[in-house]
Structures are given as structure tokens and as C-alpha cells.
Amino acid sequence: MTIPAIGAISAALPVLPTSATTNVNPTPSASGDSFAAQLSKGLNAVQDAQSKADGLAVQAATGDLTDVHNYTIAATQASLLTELATTIRTKGVDAFNQIMGMQA
What we know:
The protein is mainly α. The chain contains three helices and no strands. It has helices at residues 4-12, 35-62, 68-100.
């Protein structure tokens, strides 16, 4: 089972250059999407997963859901995607704070 949002979020992560002679100006990725676009896609996928889980939770509460496993899977996906997005945000804030703490 694959979770499409993880691919979208992980694709948004920057790849650090390995050469000292690389271009300093950021360029769009090979697919033509910028980091912001990829990050937006990942966050939209998280929101979609949460909306799907919420809809299935309402169906389960009203008795309209025939297969409870669908809700369990959707809720777990939404939880994992939220945790992944939170971890990426935390790492980004930590990196920003570390950069801002460097002396010139």
C-alpha cells in the first residue's frame, strides 16, 4: 500500500548540491515545479486525507459505513501524514533557527 502524499512531500524536500561550483540561484525541479509548489501539493494531500477520514468517520457514526476497515485505514493514513508534515515543519524551523544563530 502506498501513500501518495508521502511521495509529494518527500519530493518537495530539497536536494543539497555536492559540488562547490553549483549555481546559487534556485531553479525549478526537473518536473517544472518549484519547492513551494511541491510543498503545497504535499499539504493538499494531507488535507485531502484528513477530509476523507472525517467523511468516513461521519459515515461510521451514522451507521452508513459498511466496511469499518476503510475508516481505520483512512484515519491511520491521515494521522501518519499529519505526523510527517509536522516533523518536516519542525526540522525546517530548527534549520532556520540554526542558520539564524550562525555568526557572520
